[in-house]
Amino acid sequence: KKIGRFLLTKFDPFLRFLDSNNYDLVFYPTASSLTYFSNNRDIVSVHDLMHIYERRFKESGGFLRYLFRQNIHKNISNSFNSILVDSRTGADQFSESYKCDKNKIFVLEFCCPTYITDSNTDFNFDKFGDYFFYPAAFWPHKNHKNLILAFAEIANEHKSINLVFSGKLKLEYNNLKNLIDSLKLNDRVFFTGFIADNELSNYYKNSRGLVMPTFYGPTNIPPIEAVYSNCPVLVSNIYGMRNQMEDYAIYFNPSDVTSISNAMITLLINKEPIAKETTLRLKNKFSLERFSNTVDRILKQIAYE
């Protein structure tokens, strides 16, 4: 670490500035190799530890990726006195994984992105009919496969409902397309390709609901986007998701295809799936105002320590 810092600061003026400590505070928005240039008064965000908890997926648990992330997070545990996580589950996972003092860990729950709250675009969604929506890159951990199999279980009984997937047509896309072909669901499953942020809200608003069978957590942002779009949520009952979404969502086991299909049926037969007071409470929970107040409280707490 010391040799690396010495060599890098000879070539990079920004890293040389970080190494100088001539600043009041640096906020690292993600756990990266830049955190090796921190001192104990800085703040870092740790979004997840899925390289430990979901190591079965190569995108997070491959040997080199695992080793790289482990080294960075160990350094964070040793070098930072202020670590931000997304949930109480995230705090427990970090503390347990790196024997970190819990007093150094602060929970800052996600807020709704402004591209959702400020969106005013509109589109024609007639070609999709009545549909469930899932915006996610086609990584294996996103679990599109089980969602497609679950949809196949209900497709004959519920002939008017479709599936819409957004995301660049890469990674597992070809395998998923072959699966859809084999199930003869080509006219029921739509791939939109990449969707710009300012278009997302309309996809939520026009859908029957967000279905998110991901294996990753502890929490996730798409369900928050759905809340602010007045869109029902079906989501994996994993890690911190139930604490995040409370009674707004319908939960299922992402490893169980029938559990996913049952959740979809529950939403389809429920005329009023979400109480208005529940929506209002969750919108307040995920508001920018609440987020800003929490940041302010954390900064004041750090300043007075």
E-strand count? 10
**What general form does the structure show?**
globular
Spatial gap, N to C terminus: 28 Å
Q: Helical content, roughly?
A: 40-55%
Q: From the structure provided, what is the oligomeric state, counting identical versus distinct chains?
A: single chain
Order of helices and strands: HHEEHHHEHEHEHEHEHEHEHEHHH
Q: What strand line-up does the widest sheet have? A: 7-6-5-8-9-10
Summed up, the helix count is 15
In short:
The protein is an alpha/beta fold.
Structure notes:
- This protein has a 6-stranded parallel beta sheet with strand order 7-6-5-8-9-10, sandwiched between helices.
- It has 15 helices and 10 strands.
- With 305 residues, the protein is an alpha/beta fold.
- Helix 8 (144-155) crosses helix 13.
- The mean pLDDT is 94.
Features:
305 residues, 15 helices, single chain, alpha/beta, globular
Topology:
Blueprint: H1 2-9, H2 13-20, E1 27-28, E2 43-45, H3 50-53, H4 58-61, H5 63-79, E3 82-85, H6 88-98, E4 105-107, H7 114-117, E5 130-135, H8 144-155, E6 161-166, H9 173-182, E7 189-191, H10 197-205, E8 209-212, H11 222-228, E9 233-236, H12 241-245, E10 249-252, H13 257-269, H14 276-285, H15 288-304
Parallel strand pairs: 1-2, 2-3, 3-4, 5-6, 5-8, 6-7, 8-9, 9-10
